[in-house]
Specification:
The structure holds two protein chains of two kinds. Chain A is mostly beta strands. Chain A contains no helices and eleven strands. The relative contact order of chain A is 0.34. By secondary structure, chain B is an all-beta fold. Helices cover 0% and strands 53% of the residues of chain B. Chain B is built from no helices and eleven strands. In chain B, strands 2, 4, 5, 9, 10 and 11 form a six-stranded mixed β-sheet that branches. Chain B has a five-stranded antiparallel β-sheet with strand order 1-3-8-7-6, with no helix packed on it. The chains are: A mainly beta, B mainly beta. The interface between A and B is medium-sized, with 19 and 20 residues.
Chain lengths: 112, 112
């Protein structure tokens, strides 16, 4: 049972490039989340999903897109990367019955 | 706007002493409260949850909730150097079963 996995661990992007951050969970959780965490700050919700085919915006969705075609996978797409998207990105998941969120190890993104 | 406030610290506590971490929240309708620990460069992990007024103890950790005063605290007894981390307070605002509102975290340093 690997829990929540994220790839890549670290990436450097040039301004204007695009990329997809991958997130997979093997716990059969319905709810999945994408957060970003800037230095010294708390977690900001980007997008979340309550099940396959259902996604919704969080607090800071601009510049990002998501899809949820399966229960296991919840990729985050960055289009036209900007320096303001330099951050650490965490994916998390939980069941519908409990509020505890389980986090992946994070992806550190640097946009230059 | 719903907010969760924490003193950013760092809070420095001698080894073996009690560390006291505080969190206030703005939404009176909040129902669920969580403390996550985040080691430097790692992802958050849940250490305590509390849902009703009063104290909840788990080993060396005690969570305290006062809904009338809108604060939640975390006490760590017999503090160990391994407790040095950033502690994030998270609150379910009550109008959503899906999202948590996160504080920015308090950095705790346990001095040997």
């Amino acid at each position: 049972n690997a829990g929540v996995t994220q790839t890549p661990k670290f990436r450097i992007l040039k301004i204007g490039q695009s990329m997809t951050l991958q997130c997979t969970q093997d716990m059969n959780h319905n709810y999945m989340y994408w957060y970003r965490q800037d230095p010294g700050m708390g977690l900001k919700l980007i997008y979340y999903s309550v099940g396959a085919g259902i996604t919704d915006k969080g607090e800071v969705p601009n510049g990002y897109n998501v899809s949820r075609s399966t229960t296991e996978d919840f990729p985050l797409r960055l289009e036209l990367a900007a320096p303001s998207q330099t951050s650490v990105y965490f994916c998390a998941s939980r069941t519908g019955g409990q509020e505890t969120q389980y986090f992946g190890p994070g992806t550190r993104l640097l946009v230059l | 706007q719903k907010e969760v406030e924490q003193n950013s610290g760092p809070l420095s506590v001698p080894e073996g002493a009690i560390a006291s971490l505080n969190c206030t929240y703005s939404d009176r309708g909040s129902q669920s409260f969580f403390w996550y620990r985040q080691y430097s460069g790692k992802s958050p992990e849940l250490i305590m949850s509390i849902y009703s007024n009063g104290d909840k103890e788990d080993g060396r950790f005690t969570a305290q909730l006062n809904k009338a005063s809108q604060y939640v605290s975390l006490l760590i007894r017999d503090s160990q150097p391994s407790d040095s981390a950033t502690y994030l307070c998270a609150v379910n605002p009550g109008d959503s079963n899906y999202q948590l509102i996160w504080g920015a975290g308090t950095k705790l340093i346990i001095k040997p």
